[in-house]
Design a protein that fits this description.
662 residues, 4 domains, alpha/beta, 8-stranded parallel β-sheet, Rossmann fold, 6-stranded parallel β-sheet
């Protein structure tokens, strides 16, 4: 056999092994070809490609870059150089490589694809979309391009177009799991829960063992209030967290289980799977001296949102003689008055949507922020990867997520003795810090509109109004059963719920009918502006809370508007928030300790208008005198906590739990 024949035989076999994913074996054969024929550029090129696929970018670049001198007209070689530089963080050089490759070959599919991917990673979604669409003009049946185009459109919040693009990917490759799963995830975000459930089922049919499908299905069940299947998915999710057979988003587990150890395990598993944890922290361990402590609040919710309603007054009131306050926003600008208010309130407001996690983290480090406060945790649109790079000496979990993040890069969680007793420390990776009153900040300047008539609010003219404006996903079958028994026991009463989404509204009405209740006794309130929403609370008689996940901002809304709220003290943080609010308001008599007591007290209050009126009067009297709505008092407490954290950090001490005195 001639040397040429031997080389081609080796090349065929190397290609087969490469295609089968046997990278080490393929690389050995390409190396053998290069030994037999030192001028064989394709073999040396493939050696570099394989090193890149193995995550060995520096070695790949050392192999591929010299080939540019031997084959200066090769767009593919230039593209692989760009990929290697991208992996090494040399982003400007990487983009230059991709652009040079397109100058050599404007219709090179590989370059257009990788350049688009690079631009998505850089937050330049419109430019990425242009690359994918150029690629599709060349290769209209390329499912990967349709998939990537869909993702760019998704990030641009052009959801219907994204769904159509994923549909094209499935048309050209029916087995494409990512297209089915991403479609389901978008439908979930759009609260089209029936469609989301069907789409997740379709994704599961393509990849039954995928670790994220079960969580998606469970989210659709919760969000759509599919109470008939709720307990089945509860059992599945709890078992999956226990045996780690699936990766469940921590927020999905909370309504299903209040087992503290299980919740921590869920968060740790999720964080380890989803969030890269760099080996080297950005913060070097040396503090930068400032005249004022620099605090960065990180959130996607600096707009008209529940978190903004709570925290806006605090941001405005922070003591600027001791603190410099920045808002780091990775959420959309909704053009609201709240967005404008917060933009003015922060000393510095950074819109970082288009920046990657490492870029934002590096900016925090370079600007020498002392304390980073994560207001998102494990909620929608969170960016935990930013603080995973450890850009700041002190990093805090606060307000957005009522539980542990389960990751080593957050030092503290701000709480209070009711929501998070110190004995719950084993369930938290963060050290617990107790604020002296309720942990939840409130804005004492929130306006309340004119009280509407019952007919204007969609309510009948008479009848006792049990109210719960909590999100639909907090409603459990056990909670709904209690409410239905209350309706049965109180003639003419009705249940006033938030019209959260069409699927939930339909399913809750069907569940009421299945229990023999007239679905018309469930009245659904549409979403309206904050001041008007607060005002309509005054038409209700009693706010009945959910368990095991309480009302949080919705509880503050009810109490601020003067509506008595009945809750049950739960086992974990999220199930103890309303109790903390009520105790701070001086209304501990509205905190029960079992479902039976909760139901009995709700019934007693519905039957005793005088007693309920007394509670309403007490609430009105305490509303402005209690610490709950004293934003300046809260500001002093949280600033004391920040100062203590910084003091320990400056002394080189490890984070430790502590309580701020009143």
């Amino acid at each position: 056999m001639s040397n040429a024949d031997k080389v081609e035989k080796l090349r065929v076999r190397a290609t087969q092994l490469h295609g089968a994913g046997q990278l080490d074996e393929a690389e050995k054969l390409y190396r053998r070809i290069a030994e037999l024929r030192r001028s064989d550029i394709p073999a040396r090129y493939m050696m570099g490609v394989i090193r890149l696929q193995q995550g060995r970018a520096a070695e790949a670049l050392a192999i591929i870059e010299p080939l540019l001198a031997e084959a200066p007209g090769s767009a593919d070689i230039r593209t692989q150089c760009g990929l290697a530089r991208q992996e090494l963080g040399r982003r400007d050089e990487a983009l230059a490589d991709f652009d040079r490759a397109l100058a050599l070959q404007p219709d090179n599919p590989l370059t257009l694809l990788y350049r688009g991917n690079f631009l998505v990673e850089s937050g330049q979604y419109a430019q990425a979309l242009d690359s994918y669409e150029r690629l599709l003009r060349i290769a209209p049946g390329y499912d990967e391009a349709w998939l990537r185009r869909g993702s760019a459109l998704w990030l641009m919040e052009r959801h219907d177009e994204a769904l159509a693009s994923y549909g094209k990917a499935l048309e050209f490759n029916p087995g494409r799991f990512a297209a089915a799963f991403n479609s389901a995830t978008i439908l979930l975000k759009l609260e089209r829960y029936d469609e989301a459930l069907a789409a997740f089922e379709a994704a599961r049919a393509r990849m039954p063992e995928h670790p994220y499908v079960l969580g998606g299905l469970a989210s659709a069940i919760q969000g759509g209030c599919d109470l008939a299947r709720w307990q089945d998915y509860q059992a599945r999710v709890v078992q999956a967290v226990r045996d780690k057979s699936a990766v469940i988003a921590p927020l999905v587990l909370l309504p299903f289980s209040d087992d503290g150890a299980l919740r921590r395990s869920c968060s740790e598993n999720f964080a380890a799977d989803r969030i890269p944890h760099p080996n080297t922290p950005l913060w070097s361990g040396r503090h930068t001296q400032h005249d004022r402590i620099k605090i960065a609040y990180l959130s996607a919710d600096f707009r008209q949102h529940a978190t903004a309603d709570l925290i806006a007054g605090l941001i405005e009131r922070h003591d600027r003689t001791r603190f410099e306050i920045a808002g780091i926003c990775f959420g959309r600008d909704d053009g609201s008055a709240m967005r404008a208010r917060l933009t003015r309130a922060f000393d510095r407001f950074e819109d970082v949507r288009a920046r990657g996690d490492i870029e934002i983290a590096t900016w925090l480090r370079d600007n020498a922020f002392d304390i980073a406060v994560d207001l998102k945790g494990h909620t929608e649109e969170a960016r935990p990867g930013i603080l995973a790079h450890r850009p700041c000496p002190v990093q805090v979990n606060y307000l957005g997520y009522p539980g542990t993040i389960g990751a080593p890069w957050l030092d503290y969680i701000l709480a209070d003795p009711t929501v998070l007793p110190f004995q719950h420390q084993p369930f938290y990776s963060e050290k617990i810090v107790h604020l002296p009153h309720c942990y939840q900040v409130n804005d004492c300047t929130r306006p309340i509109g004119e009280t509407p008539t019952r007919s204007e609010a969609g309510l009948p003219q008479s009848g006792f109004v049990f109210c719960c404006f909590n999100a639909a996903w907090k409603i459990t079958p056990a909670m709904f059963d209690v409410w239905m028994r209350l309706l049965s026991a109180v003639p003419g009463s009705l249940l006033w719920l938030l019209d959260d989404n069409t699927t939930a509204t339909r399913n809750l009405r069907a569940a009421a009918a299945a229990q023999g209740a007239d679905p018309a006794r469930l009245v659904f309130a549409p979403r309206i502006p904050s001041a008007a929403h607060l005002a309509r609370h005054r038409l209700a008689d009693l706010f009945v809370d959910t368990m095991p996940y309480n009302a949080h901002t919705t509880a503050s809304d009810a109490l601020w508007a003067g509506l008595p709220l009945l809750t049950c003290l739960g086992g974990q943080f999220d199930g103890r928030v309303a109790a903390s609010l009520l105790q701070t308001m001086g209304l501990p008599e509205l905190v029960t300790h079992s479902t039976e007591d909760y139901e009995a007290l709700a019934l007693a209050l519905a039957r005793d208008r005088e007693r309920l009126a007394g509670l309403r009067g007490k609430l009105a009297q305490n509303r402005l005198s209690s610490p709950l709505y004293d934003t300046d008092l809260f500001r002093k407490s949280i600033e004391t906590a920040y100062l203590r954290m910084m003091e320990m950090s400056l002394q080189g001490l490890a984070p430790q739990s502590f309580a701020v005195s009143a």
